[in-house]
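Side project, low priority. Logging it here so it doesn't get lost.
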Amino acid sequence: MNSYRLRLAALAVVALTALTVERAFANGDIKNVKHIIIVMQENHSFDNYFGALAYAPGTPYRTSSGGCSQNDHNCVDGLSCKVDAVGNLTCFNSNLDDSGTTVFAFHDGRRCAAPDLDHSWPGTHKEANFLNPNGALGQTVSDGFVLVNDATEQLDHSVENATEDQTMGFYNQDDIPFYYNLAANFAINDRYFSSVLGGTFSNRAFFAAATSFGHLSTFDEFPPPGGYKPITGTIFDLLDQNGISWGDYFQDAPQGASFRAFGAPPNIDPHFIPLPFFFAQAAGSPQLPPLPQVAFVDPDFGLPGVPNGGIQNENDEHPPTDIQRGQAFVSQIVNAVRNGPFWQDSVIFITYDEHGGYYDHVAPPKAPQGTARTPDGISPGQCADLSNPPLSLLPAQGAECASNLLSGTLDTTVGEATFLCPELIANPAGPYPDDCASFDQLGFRVPFMVVSPFAKQHYVSHTVADHTSLLAFIERRFLSLDNPDERLHLTKRDLHADALEDMFDFTGSPSLNTAVGQASPPTTDCTPH
């Protein structure tokens, strides 16, 4: 699905119920954190960015062909490779091509993958298990990356070569040195997964609402007027209800506009703030309020039809834009906080919405939401919300489920659901068949970094997490109840999500004086015009 100019996203959550979960604890008190800053970029798998991390010169990490022990925090579960005398990698992870030949993972220094790779709901399930996509939860073999993209995105040439299947490509320390520096010096997680085996909107909706309330299609990301209204609400709602300050800092459009009004004043949520204000606040400008308790900092999504929009300014790392644009943007954010007065009590999370069609060898596990198949009782393709109750509360009657503003009745959530689950064609409202893929499996791994004075140094967490773990961290810090094991939450997904506390030492601040580098925009930009 080639939709690199069409991205916006979501944030939401409701339920004020309490929870008791098992989790790994940090050293010290999480209340020492005063500011949480989240940067979510686009469309790269863990193997695509950090599969070669353990082979980088001078790295503090190692890898293991048998996977990493849970308690070995210097081990990274990356690609299986051997290194020659000059540092070149020969890797053994592979997929079969449609010709029957084997395509091995390879270093690909091309920073602009073109065209896009398949990361749709049906395409991603076929990447996980090509012959039985509905059985991916029981058996993810990661055997369909090349086959899916040969058929739909990057068609084979008449004469095949070993590097034409960019889904199997990976970057190294020479391509994204700033990220490798952060990963080596602060903390990362090699079991951080996207929330859904699917694309942009469903994953960013989980990031905002701990559910996609039935939605699957990336084209759903442009919302109905006033935004989507999930039954369980959004993280924005939860923060507002409890007096927690927050801002969504944007360039072309805020991802939160999927759920709240965004337009010309006064029809714009006051929490949507142009990016330059973030830099001024991070620097401690006396003319502005301090950094909010929670800051969502968005890249430029390359959206057409908005001020300063279009691919010429895009820096979200979504193909085919030059990934070094995004690295430079994230460098600005990190350095602004690192060099400002709020560094000593801030946490910066850096991650990616989904794998973008790039290969990853680790099977996504069962979603942590108890025994439920969905976080909120809403199955794939059976969208329900508060847009037009009581009708919109019925399965498949939610806003933009069977049609959307971008593609009409094509490329819809109902269409993607029935592609994997044709039984829904006869009765889209259900009941949802037991043998069809649901929201009970996480998506493929994505890069995840923590930059903070509280981050453990040179530390690899192997704790299973997804985007709702970021919600859980916010909730643990700012929305805890009197019992420290209880917090406000939205759905069963963030209720059971691990808050990633094992990555922190809130007492010792081991990374307080750790320097960060800088990244510049590409000298020669490969982004197509």
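Brief comment: Residues 1-24 have pLDDT under 50 and may be disordered.
Revisit when time allows.
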